[in-house]
Amino acid sequence: MLRRLLQEHAQLLREVTELRLLRDHAYHDPLTGLRNARYLQIRLNEELQRGGPLGAGAGSLVLLDIDGMGRLNQRHGRAAGDSALRWLSRQLTATVRVSDVCCRTGADRFMLILPDTDRAGAETTVIRIAQAVSAARGEPWMPLGFSRGLATWPKDARDCRDLLGVAARSLEDDQRRQRSGRARLRLVP
C-alpha cells in the first residue's frame, strides 16, 4: 500500500512538472522569449482589478508597432527579421522596470504593461526605448522605427477590452501623424 502511494505521488509530481512546463510554453513567445498575448490579457486584467473602485493602482498600456518589417523580411530575409525582433525584445526588457511586463502580441507588435505609471511616465518610457533603438548600429536592419499607442487606467478605461481599444486608436493616430510628417515624437532617426 505504501509503495503504491509513493508511486502515485511520484506520478503526480511528474504531471505537475509537465503542466507547469506546458503553462510556461503557453504564455511565452517562442521567438523572443517574451510573454505573449494570452499572458497579456491575464496580467492586464489582474492589474485593472488591483486598482479597485477608488482608482488606486493606476497604470499605462503601451502598444508598439514596428515599422517596415515586411520590407526588412523581403530585403534581408526572414532570418534578419527574426534577429531584429529578438534584438528589440532585449532592448525592451533592458529599458523597462522589473515590475513592467513586455509582451509580443503579433508578428511586429509589442505591448508593455506599466503598473503605477501615468501617461507622462509612459511617454518617458517610450522615449527611452526610442533612444535605445536609434542608438543601435551595425546590422542591415538598423535602425528600427516604430509607432506607438498609449492608454492609461482608470482614466482612459477601466476594463481590458476598452483599454486595448484606446491604445489601438492611439496607435492609429500616431501612424497617421507619422505618415503626414506631424509626429509628436519622431521615433525613426
Strand order, largest beta sheet: 1-3-4-2-5
- Give the amount of beta strand, in percent: 15-25%
- How many E-type strands? 5
Tell me the overall shape. globular
Give an overview in words.
Helix content is 54%, strand content 17%. The chain is built from 6 helices and 5 strands, in the order αβαβααββαβα. It has helices at 2-26, 37-51, 69-76, 78-95, 119-134, 160-180; strands at 35-36, 59-67, 101-106, 109-115, 145-153. A 5-stranded mixed β-sheet has the order 1-3-4-2-5, sandwiched between helices. Strand 3 (101-106) and strand 4 form a beta hairpin. Helix 3 (69-76) crosses helix 4 and helix 4 packs across helix 5. The longest helix is centred in the first third of the chain and has 25 residues, at 2-26. The N and C termini lie far apart (71 Å). The mean pLDDT is 86.
Break the fold down into its secondary structure elements and pairings:
Elements: H1 2-26, E1 35-36, H2 37-51, E2 59-67, H3 69-76, H4 78-95, E3 101-106, E4 109-115, H5 119-134, E5 145-153, H6 160-180
Parallel strand pairs: 1-3
Antiparallel strand pairs: 2-4, 2-5, 3-4
